[in-house]
Design goal:
The protein has 15 helices and 27 strands. With 541 residues, it is α/β, with parallel strands linked by helices. The strands form seven sheets. The chain has a seven-stranded mixed beta sheet, with helices on one face. The chain has a six-stranded mixed beta sheet with strand order 7-8-10-11-15-14, with helices on one face. Strand 7 and strand 8 form a beta hairpin. Helix 2 packs antiparallel against helix 10 and helix 12 crosses helix 15. It is globular. One of its GO terms (molecular function) is nucleotide binding.
Length: 541
């Protein structure tokens, strides 16, 4: 039984916000006394202190303007309040607690363990960034949390340490509830999961364990997923017996009104499953900026009779739990001084929003910094970075070391590689076709570039998307020459096959850390005024 703290502070929540109309013939078959409240978080990425709109630590100005969000202390207040309102409350996390701030960069899982155990999660699925220090290190984390880690579409038979602590599902006997975990099957190419484990199709794994759970007499079945919103809808449509998917990975904000600015869909999204019934999909953006919850009543066959709930915005109106706020302040002291050095300044706020889908101003700045940095060492033609490496924005005003670590928390290092023009063309084509030219596998990431300009057509068929690629400097451009060898600076992650952008892995020696290169650039060119300049242009628009 979940035990909630008896203390909560100043949070008012409207419990019944919407209700999905259901078949009237079923309404008398529901059992109102057996309803559950499912509370969920996802993609916290070590954001245990409050943050501003671009993901940096809150300044006095942010606080005075009400532009400060999230933090573990507000999670405690909100989750305790939600739990105290409903006697049958369960709390799940959809992965990626790891990586994103100095709490993880310097402290690894230490704060994560403290926060998650205090919140008394009932289960979590694995996120791809949980593997950032390898599967054996992840196993030690799972041994220290007081709740199960679940993932049904992972093969751990080659890793005894992880196999001991990861199971495909958990049964919560009190509520006759089965909870299946799953992760994106691209994890092998976007993480440091390594060769001892592998990942399979999520829907196939879910159907397998739905059958297992039904054979055990479990009728109520949900999933906790680190797979992405669109992909979760596909899983919902291609599986039997799931009532709810609690999702993560894509950082999607789902709203009660899907037309709300910034919303990626409806909270929750109803999908017709293979049984002809509804499977509901929810997600709560990222970083703990939102906490989601749904109240579910079930029919005798385990299907959903009614469902209500909402995403709750973790604004400054929610009073922080004082004990957790005190602990967070204590736990971050060792790295506050470490990150306080000013390296430059920004003329205005710049966000990382859109960097994984399109040219973005921050991506232009970072790629320019990479190219400038490497040109101090050797003549370099092109810089290329995967958009997923850019994890936060930069606020106007002074830029500190800790801000750059938020932008690039992975300890990524630059590498210099030699590529033919044809290889560069294949790489760029693969990014826009979302499929590698050389190995045929999906390309997971977008790229930000410097020293090159790309024109493409979003309405073209695969193989026809690229209109032109130019390479140049100082305002002089020429068409990419397939037969010429170019010097390219990128990240070690990309050069080693990350996101399947480059194939085969090249494994070159590493150079300066990315955040150091950005800092050196800002020291020379502050205040920085990044803006999209059309270096990646869709000619179909």
């Amino acid at each position: 039984m979940r035990v909630c703290s008896s203390f909560f502070f100043g949070l008012a929540i409207v419990t019944v916000v919407f209700a999905y109309p259901l078949d009237p013939a079923n309404k008398h078959n529901s059992d109102p006394g057996s309803s559950l409240r499912i509370i969920h978080t996802n993609d916290i990425h070590a954001h245990y202190s409050p943050f501003n709109r671009v993901g940096n630590d809150c300044s006095d100005s942010d606080i005075s303007k009400g532009n400060c969000f999230g933090g573990a202390a507000r999670l405690v207040t909100t989750i305790n309040k939600l739990c105290n309102e409903h006697p049958n409350s369960l709390l799940f996390d959809a992965g990626d607690q790891a990586q994103g701030t100095l709490f993880y960069t310097l402290g690894k899982f230490n704060t994560t363990i403290e926060v998650m155990n205090e919140l008394k999660y009932d289960a979590m699925c694995i996120g791809n960034h949980e593997f950032d220090d390898g599967p054996d290190f992840l196993a030690t984390f799972f041994e220290k949390i007081n709740f199960p880690a679940i993932c049904a579409n992972i093969d751990t038979s080659g890793n005894a340490n992880l196999a001991k602590v990861v199971k495909p599902y958990v049964i919560i006997d009190k509520h006759n509830l089965g909870v299946i975990g799953y992760i994106t099957n691209t994890t092998g190419s976007i993480s440091k999961a390594g060769p001892t484990i592998s990942f399979s199709d999520a829907a196939t794994a879910v159907n397998k364990y739905v059958k297992v759970l039904r054979q055990k007499g479990v009728k109520r079945i949900i999933a906790v997923s680190h797979n992405g919103y669109q992909q979760d809808m596909d899983v919902a449509a291609n599986t039997h017996g799931l009532d709810l998917i609690v999702g993560g990975h894509s950082h999607t904000y789902l709203a009660l009104n899907a037309s709300e600015p910034g919303a990626g869909g409806l909270y929750p999204t109803a999908v017709t499953n293979l049984d002809g019934k509804a499977t509901y999909v929810v997600q709560a953006k990222a970083w703990g900026e939102y906490v989601g919850y749904v109240d579910i009543a079930f029919n005798p066959d385990g299907s959903v009779a009614s469902l209500t709930g909402m995403p709750i915005h973790m604004t400054q109106d929610i009073v922080e739990d004082p004990a957790m706020a005190s602990n967070i302040a204590k736990w971050r002291k060792p790295f506050d001084a470490y990150g306080s050095t000013v390296v430059g300044s920004m003329a205005a706020d710049v966000s990382n929003a859109g960097c994984k889908e399109n040219e973005c101003a921050l991506g232009d700045l970072i790629a320019d910094a990479m190219l400038w940095s490497q040109n101090q060492i050797e003549p370099t033609d092109v810089a290329l970075i995967n958009g997923g490496a850019i994890r936060a924005g930069l606020a106007a005003g002074p830029v500190k070391v800790k801000d750059l670590i938020l932008v690039s928390p992975f300890n990524d290092a630059l590498v210099s590689i030699k590529l033919s023009g044809k290889s560069i063309r294949n790489i760029i084509t693969g990014v826009f076709d979302k499929k590698s030219v050389t190995n045929g596998r999906p390309v997971i990431g977008f790229v930000q570039i410097s020293g090159a300009r790309v024109k493409y057509r979003s309405d073209a068929s695969p193989g026809q998307t690229i209109v032109s690629i130019e390479v140049g400097k100082n305002g002089t451009w020429s068409m990419l020459d397939d037969s010429k060898t170019y010097t390219v600076v990128t990240l070690g992650y990309v050069a080693n096959g990350g996101d399947n952008i480059i194939d085969p892995p090249l494994s070159p020696p590493t150079l300066a850390a990315l955040n150091v290169a950005i800092g050196d650039y800002l020291q020379q060119f502050s205040p920085a005024t990044p803006a999209i300049d059309g270096r990646i242009k869709d000619t179909a628009k």
